[in-house]
Write a structure and sequence with these properties.
single chain; 337 residues; alpha/beta; Isopropylmalate Dehydrogenase; 11-stranded mixed sheet; 11 strands; 46% helix; 17% strand
Amino acid sequence: MLRIALDAMGGDNAPRNEIEGAIAALRFANNRFEVAVVGQERLLKSEISRHNIGSLNLTIVHADDVVTMNDAPAAILRTKPKSSIVRALELHSERVVDAFVSGGNTGAVMAASTLLLGRIPGVSRPTIGSNFPNETGVCIVLDVGASVDCKPHHLYEFAVMGSIYAAQIFNCEHPKVGLLSVGEEDAKGNEVSLAALELLRNSNLNFIGNVEGRDILKGKAEVIVCDGFTGNIVLKFAESVPSLLKKRIKDYANQSLPKKIMAALISRPLKKILGGDMDYQQHGGVPLLGVNGVTIIGHGRSTPLAFRNMILRAEEMALKKVNERIANALRPSIKAT
């Protein structure tokens, strides 16, 4: 049976939201996998006792310590070796579990995943990809914060990993790849993007050339590649869009529509328009691609629904062997540029 380790101590509302999310995932999946919740046993038992879990495949793995947002990410293996993040990743590195999920300190999860799981052969740097809704469905933008400074071959590797992820998770047979730049013309960009453009042009990927920021939501490509500095700015900007749209629509409705019509608009159509792909809870978390394991990273503020979907996404990545496909694709590795 597939086993997934959940860091039950990392989120803002831990361990309540993590436990509720794990129970919801098991019920949704008809108990087809096991979730090992990792954290302080006393707190986890207390939280689980609030639910009637019956025969659900939910187990507890004790971990003494908790990584906070103030802990230095690169030092947690030394400073907090008995934390829930480290213990869960040790289970994964020992192949006791098949995937790892956390809503804790993102930097700590990335650093510990890279050190304990190692990199997939052929991968220079792991990358975080984030799903973005667009006019044709959804795309993945990567990197969104793992590597703020990149070399051309890093962007090439991100494109390969993103293409495999999109093919397997989005069921897109030949995902289009775009390189985020300041213009569509090949001559536009900085030194890194111009060199990366050549690597991508000469690859076997379905590369369509440079794309601009406005092309992300237009759905021009299923995979958008950029350095983590740019990608994180794009991600944080995009996360602010739904709240602005909600406010503008509500302000307009308050001024122009009768209260009954406004209430009907907000209760269903508006929630549907601004929910779904625009709601981070539906995707749960983002994958850390390139590590020799399955790591899904979520918001600290993740709800039970978000944790449920993080766990389901971890199962999907493990079953579809995304890592094995990445290793096969990058075996004839590109030399550093």
